Amino acid sequence: MKSYYILYIIIASTVLFKSSECAFESFDTAPIVHLSTGLVRGLKLTSAVNKSYFSFKGVPYAAPPLKHLRFTAPQPLQNWTGVWDAFDNPSACMQPLRDVGFPETYSENCLFVNVYTKVLNVTDDKQLMPVMVWFYGGEFFKGTASSYKYGPDFLLEADVVVVTVYYRLGVFGFLNMQTKSAQGNAGLKDQVAALRWVQKEIKNFGGDANRVTIFGGSSGGSCVNYLYLSPLAHGLFHRAVSQSGLALQTAPLKQSTYAAGKQLASYLRCPTASTDTIMECLKTAPADDLIKYQIAMTDTGKGEYTMVGKSAPFLPTVEKYKGEEVFLPKQPWELVRPKSSPKGVPYIIGVTSDEGLFYVYDDPDLFTNFEKDLKLYLPSHIQKTASQRQIKELTTKVKEFYFGNQSVSYETIQAYIDLHTDRLFLYPIILGVRALRHQADIYLFQFAYKGAFKIIRKHYVLHNLTGAAHGGELGYLFYRNHGMPAHNNLSAYPEDLHVLSNMVKLWTNFAKYGKPTPVYDDQLKVKWKPVESNKTNFLKIDIDLQMVDNDLNGDRIAFWDSLYSLVLSENTSSENSAMKNTGAFPYSLIATGNQCWAL
């Protein structure tokens, strides 16, 4: 008989609540915390597992980025008088209006954190709890840290403090006009400001500033990787987790957003003769207009970042110093420390087994268009450097490898899913692991459980698509009953609770000890080993945990290595030298035979 351990026992034996806000106990028990900038009052709530905790939602960590502060790095927060009531989720940062299934408003005044803790007024530093700081995903132009989407209920049971961070998005967070008033990467600098706030204030919430774990999913995972690489964030955290996203994937990076900023100004009918006139326009335009025209100017071709359909016009960029701190001074690959460096911050990196399921849309022309435009799904680096003859040859190889002589259809849907998984997530992430494994303990995972704690799309049900899609692990870390019906009846899913309990323990062990399995125990029954120097061994997270000593999807990774190797082998030495020296793509990490070129 399987044991589902403490978390499952708690859930199964208690009355569950139907709201991610759970039960408010009393204003008489509302806690007040003294911060360096003033007093903040939260709420005492009862979680989905019927345990009390303290919630502080909408605590400011930087000055409102309004008027002349639009597009700039976050500025210090001013002290306030009286008591700041941190009762409700704040407005999410400006983004396209979406039907998210829960209450949500949008504002430029959005630099807030939500903080959740079980204990306050800790007087003994030895009793301080590890801190887990979450950065949401959403392709850098949408997303929220709302408790409706990222409820802390499960993680809090493992005695950690949970912080979720709101940061600027789209043009507000990533306009780079190569000027002091828009130097670039404001959204990533927001995250640095939030981590500085954590270092300064988290002890007041029972958190240990010397045990801070940053974690994020999708583009939030890329944010974590950017923070991991950026000199600006060094020393602000002590472990890192990237779920289905890395900055070392080259997609979430643009060489410049100057042209996009100029185009946006032209949509607003502003003069574009100089940077000064463009900036005056963009700084004074109504925020809603910036969002409206940002949507209008979105790419209509095959987007590099979103893979299918559209590509965000404003993404992280390499900066030049124009008067404010530089977050990204070089290409991400160029910020990887040399092999001779001391070992750094331990890092969990991973993917779901069927990331590409996210790109199966309810579109009758989906497969026809895909097959017709298959060459556009080759990596942009290959499209930019390969000859037309090579592109045709490589397109044929991709079709044959994944589909053989069959057409793309629901009959071959798993091949379609695998191609999208490999092209957009798995292969770039494996390259990232190859780059980083010499400088830190890298724990690689594949989340493969096909469970009930996930977002359900109608066409998934119609076509019996049950894989672990992009974001499929989130329901096993966060309480999100507004988007996941099964979270309204947790005790009805004992196997899912078993997987959830394992995930929570692995992630919080890592936050506490820097190792996900510091000792063997009767719950996890596995020792998660870091990747080795010559292979990408990984932990498979399914109904049970399995440490796999072989490469993660080694045959598929070898295929993508072979595509790049083919281009490199046929190019002239000068062409290859130019390609490898761009810094934009890690050609040095392409495996040729059993070797990788030295980084």
Automatic annotation (TrEMBL):
GO terms for molecular function: carboxylic ester hydrolase activity. Residues 30-560 form the Carboxylesterase type B domain. It is an enzyme of class 3 (hydrolase). The keyword Glycoprotein applies. Its EC number is 3.1.1.-. It holds the Pfam family COesterase. Residues 1-22 form the signal peptide. Gene3D superfamilies: alpha/beta hydrolase (3.40.50.1820). Keywords: Glycoprotein, Hydrolase, Serine esterase, Signal. The keyword Nucleotide-binding does not apply. InterPro entries: AB_hydrolase_fold, CarbesteraseB, Carboxylesterase_B_AS, Type-B_Carboxylest/Lipase. PANTHER family: CARBOXYLESTERASE. Belongs to the type-B carboxylesterase/lipase family. This is Carboxylic ester hydrolase. It comes from Subpsaltria yangi.
